[in-house]
Design a protein that fits this description.
Nucleoside Triphosphate Pyrophosphohydrolase, globular, 8-stranded mixed sheet, alpha+beta, 3-stranded antiparallel sheet
C-alpha cells in the first residue's frame, strides 16, 4: 500500500501508541542508505549534536486530517525561509524533549500546550546544522487559534495528511552538503516546497502508518 486515502486520528493513535522518545534526545537514526554517504558528511551528522524538538501538529477538519507547517522567517540565522514544523532547541527549563516541542510551538504559532494531545514520537534525526531533532506527533484541538510570531515565522499553512501519505507525492532528489551530493526527499504542495529534514519526518510518519 502506498497511501491512505482517509487517515483518521484513531489510526494515528493506534500506530503511534507504543512510540517513545529516545532515552537521550541526541540519540539519532540516520536515513536509509546513509552508509553510502561520504565519510565527511556522516561525521558532520553524527558529531556533537544539540537536542531539539518539533511538533507535527495534526488537525481533524471536516474535510479530513491536515498537518500544520510553517515557512520560517527569512531573517533567521538557520534554515531561513524553509518550510518546517514548529519547534526548536531544547532549553534548560524544559522537562523533556516533548516539552521542548510544545513550548516552541506555542512561541512560534501560539498553540497552547494544553490544546495538544500527544499521539506519539518519531525517532530523532540529525540535521546538517548540528541538531538532533525529535518529532512529536500531536492532535491539536479544532478550536485552537494559530497566532504566528513573525520574528520567527512568515506564515503557516495546512496540508491534507492524505496528500503527504501518498507515496507518489514524494520525489527523490539531491542536495549538496559540504561539497558532497546526498539524496533527499521532497514534496511539492501548491507553491510550497517541503524538503530536507521536514520531508524525511513525513516519510517516516508514512512508514509507520501505511
Amino acid at each position: 500500500m502506498t497511501s491512505i486515502k482517509k487517515p483518521t486520528i484513531a489510526l494515528l493513535r493506534d500506530r503511534l501508541q507504543h512510540t517513545r522518545p529516545a532515552a537521550s534526545p541526541t540519540d539519532v537514526v540516520l536515513p536509509p542508505g546513509s552508509s553510502h554517504w561520504p565519510t565527511a558528511v556522516l561525521e558532520h551528522l553524527t558529531g556533537t549534536l544539540k537536542p531539539a524538538g518539533v511538533l507535527i501538529p495534526v488537525f481533524d477538519r471536516k474535510s479530513g486530517l491536515t498537518v500544520l507547517l510553517t515557512q520560517r522567517s527569512s531573517a533567521l540565522r538557520l534554515h531561513a525561509g524553509q518550510i518546517s514544523f514548529p519547534g526548536g532547541s531544547m532549553e534548560e527549563g524544559d522537562a523533556d524533549i516533548t516539552s521542548t516541542a510544545l513550548r516552541e510551538t506555542y512561541e512560534e504559532v501560539g498553540i497552547e500546550p494544553d490544546k495538544v494531545s500527544v499521539l506519539g514520537h518519531l525517532t530523532a534525526m540529525p540535521t546538517v546544522t548540528g541538531f538532533a531533532v525529535t518529532p512529536v506527533v500531536g492532535q491539536v484541538a479544532s478550536k485552537a487559534i494559530v497566532h504566528i510570531d513573525r520574528s520567527e515565522v512568515e506564515f503557516a499553512f495546512e496540508v491534507p495528511l492524505s496528500y503527504l501519505l501518498d507515496k507518489s507525492n514524494a520525489r527523490a532528489t539531491e542536495r549538496e552538503v559540504n561539497g558532497q551530493m546526498i539524496p533527499i526527499m521532497e514534496f511539492q504542495f501548491e507553491r510550497h516546497r517541503i524538503w530536507g529534514a521536514t520531508a524525511h519526518m513525513l516519510v517516516k510518519l508514512r512508514e509507520l502508518l501505511v
